[in-house]
Amino acid sequence: MALTWAAKAPGDVYRYTWSPPLAYGDGLGSYTASVSGAVIDNQSLEDNSVVLYVSGGTAGTTATFTLEATSDQGETLTETIYLPIVANTAGATAREICEFALRKIYGKDETPEASAMSDALERLEDMLRQWDATGAAVGATYPILEATVLRVQPSFLSAIKNNLIVEIAELYDLPISVTIASNAVRGMQHIKTANLPEDRAAGVYY
Description:
By secondary structure, this protein is an alpha+beta fold. The chain has two domains: 3-84, Sandwich (Immunoglobulin-like); 92-194, Orthogonal Bundle (Hypothetical protein yqbg). 33% of the residues lie in helices and 26% in strands. The protein contains five helices and nine strands, in the order E-E-E-E-E-E-E-E-H-H-H-E-H-H. Strand 4 (39-46) and strand 5 form a beta hairpin. Helix 1 (94-101) packs across helix 3 (114-133), helix 1 (94-101) packs across helix 4 and helix 4 (154-171) packs across helix 5 (178-194). The longest helix has 20 residues, at 114-133.
């Protein structure tokens, strides 16, 4: 399944890493990397990982990377990676997202207990890892700590918050409103649609 890297703004130059799944004892011998919708400024092979410095892109689009590597034992490994290009990458910390989701428990201006924050962070990471595996990747990096910044599109951030509220409500056996449940489902679908390559973004119905 294709990967999604953390979003970047057109003016950012970010360092991205691809670590292909090598067999035990194997090494990365050579690779090729190409991109549509952004610019690879520099690239190198470091400790069996491909390192790319990426700039450019147009806000609101998704750059597509095609990487192919050959291992020391002759295995060919390929990967397609998507990179959302956003207007800005201010993002939000994982703590801020968890505090938002915990408001139903602690109130708007109250500080959650350490155990509740730990549980919320665990739920957030589990949720986003599951999204990675089901076509709703937002480019999160792991592990997710309180200070981890999720640099995503504003609409993605809303989807994360609403879905985490659902997760937290389940954890504490609390009811959720129809509005939050609906926003969570729509937000998830929006992310999956946005992650599709541009030539597959829309279907034709008769």
